[in-house]
């Protein structure tokens, strides 16, 4: 019986120790203060409006969505912009700063191990002692050496979760900087694409104007010859000259617009000042050669919260602000710090590592505010106010994003309608111009009617170039507002979802 008791007693003691350890762990884990993050509830639509063009179920790999326009020059410009754009360079530096801050908070959760090495030589004068006899003072004057070598350890027990909340806040801030950089990249790419389309439209309009000017010059010279032979009056010549000079007066404005867009595009892609001035190359593509995407993959409204990096950046800011409330609340409570050191100290270097020179110490301290006249409470109130601001900013970002998508969808739909209407207009105006030329040659209409028909055709062609630019820009804006491109892994996840 005694042997049995000797075997069971240790097991009971071990069970007690285990239970005490579990209770202590649960107690310490339950001491963390501060609110847990909960995503704000949002009333999201189930679907987009039915009549808007966003109903294609087939998805391609739209990761690099600008490649759907099938323009190698545009691809090169976008690639360079993602590498050399100065705004993205600034965002990348902010990511590095946030990563470093996250490293600080992660390191704070571990003990700090340090070392100290010290060597001193000190002379103690006998005159400092309360003895007036000088010979004795000389005898009492000493010179001593002191050598010390020690290692120290400091550790703060994260009883209230302050360090954990700081790490959570820093991690969210790091994610926020990453999402902010992604949002900036999407914005830069969208600006490059739309500026490129504006440039190609301006170049197309300038080329069309040049061709029309050449045609008007030939007409003017022909009218002068007919006037010199007495076939027409001077009024017809002056009308042809006035139309020609009017077109020439429009060309400088278009040329200025082209160069202005070239410069803006050069800044977006990060060209050097030398390239901007002397070697600015934006490609030789024509507006008519750019492919208009015909398929827009289907996107559910709820996906927008994960696809838009600006929304995820705002949510990360809200997570960081929520964690800071826990930090502020923990600052109101006592903090427990453990310290220890182990070393050796001797007056002679030879005795430095002897047993007699060994020194050590352990300690613990509890520190906390007693009367701070509301400072720590003000810190909590300030942190909670920042949470309210971050939540409002998150809701505003979501609302703005959905409104941008709504506008982009309607714009995409309406620009397609306008482009089709302009094409029909071109056919009618072209036929009217051909008839005016034929009837003028037969003497059935006046030169003024023919010039009006020519001017109408020029206006219709300029509007055609603008409508095509607008349609291409609308597609680019739609891709941008939907969060960029569709990645293959995103598609796989969607296919796996029942």
From TrEMBL:
<dbReference type="Pfam" id="PF02321">
    <property type="entry name" value="OEP"/>
</dbReference>
<keyword id="KW-0175">Coiled coil</keyword>
<feature type="coiled-coil region">
    <location>
        <begin position="199"/>
        <end position="257"/>
    </location>
</feature>
<keyword id="KW-0472">Membrane</keyword>
<feature type="signal peptide">
    <location>
        <begin position="1"/>
        <end position="34"/>
    </location>
</feature>
<keyword id="KW-0449">Lipoprotein</keyword>
<keyword id="KW-0564">Palmitate</keyword>
<dbReference type="InterPro" id="IPR003423">
    <property type="entry name" value="OMP_efflux"/>
</dbReference>
<dbReference type="GO" id="GO:0009279">
    <property type="term" value="C:cell outer membrane"/>
</dbReference>
<keyword id="KW-1134">Transmembrane beta strand</keyword>
<protein>
    <submittedName>
        <fullName>RND transporter</fullName>
    </submittedName>
</protein>
<keyword id="KW-0732">Signal</keyword>
<comment type="similarity">
    <text>Belongs to the outer membrane factor (OMF) (TC 1.B.17) family.</text>
</comment>
<dbReference type="GO" id="GO:0015562">
    <property type="term" value="F:efflux transmembrane transporter activity"/>
</dbReference>
<keyword id="KW-0812">Transmembrane</keyword>
<dbReference type="InterPro" id="IPR010131">
    <property type="entry name" value="MdtP/NodT-like"/>
</dbReference>
